[in-house]
Amino acid sequence: MTLNNNISPKAKLGKNIKIGQFNIIEDNVEIGDNVEIGSFCIIRSNVKIKNNVILKNHIEIRENTNINVSTFVDSYVAISGNVKVGKNVTLRYGTILARGAVVGDNCYLSPRVMLNNLNQEKKQIGGANIGKNSFIGTQSVLHHGVKIGANVTVGAMSFVNKDCKANKTYVGIPAKEIVKKKK
Questions:
Q1: Is the pLDDT of residue 162 over 90?
Q2: d(CA 172, CA 156)
Q3: DSSP assignment letter at 10
Q4: Rounded to the nearest 5 degrees, what angle is found at the Cα of 94, between the Cα atoms of 19 and 90?
Q5: What is the pTM of this model?
Q6: pLDDT tens digit string along 96-114?
Q7: Which of 46, 81, 91, 162 places its Cα 20 to 30 Å from the Cα of 115?
Q8: Spatial CB neighbours of 86, under 8 Å, sequence gap ≥ 6
């Protein structure tokens, strides 16, 4: 560990952790073994980070978030709290996970993906739920409460405002399923 960090004495840190500079780690945070944390990160209270996770720079993870094993969180990712991130997930730079979002195992969220959790009256409804093995393209937006099935691909710059069935591909504004034409 390096200097210039503010780490709560109530935080539980595992073995073989590498921590950059100017980080804040609050009370009751649990960090597993072999975790790397870059610089300028804020990890709020009651966050659980499992083993073999990499957090790059300028990340904020708010309260009661769980990040499972072997996950990669790129720079400038914001996680709004009460979020569950599965095993072997990649969150690329600039991604925003709204409060209450769930990201299944083996998912890849491309740069600047946004999961929203507010309705038109600005009430928090809950973030999107992304099924395992799904791919979300760059700058896509997933509307509050949307359920994405397992093995779904969402094309870049799509706006998903309805549930997506498993094993399908969706693109556009609003996102629609791509249907293969029969020959």
A1: yes
A2: 8
A3: T
A4: 70
A5: 0.93
A6: 999 999 999 999 999 999 9
A7: 46
A8: 68, 71, 103, 104, 105, 106, 107, 132
HSE-CB at 25 with a 13 A cutoff on CA atoms is 25
Place of tokens 């710059």: 157
Length in residues, the chain? 183
CA dist 166 to 144, 153, 169, Å?
18, 9, 9
Question: The tokens 């890849």 sit on which residue?
Answer: 108
Residue 73 · residue 93 · CB < 8 Å: no
Contact 2, 20 (CB under 8 A): yes
Structure tokens at 13: 């840190």
Q: State which amino acid sits at residue 83.
A: V
Q: What angle do CA 21, 75, 62 make, to 5 degrees?
A: 80
C-alpha radius of gyration, the chain, whole number: 17
Beta-bridge partners for 37: 19, 55
Please give the structure tokens belonging to residue 114.
């946004």
CA pair distance 126, 34, nearest whole angstrom: 31
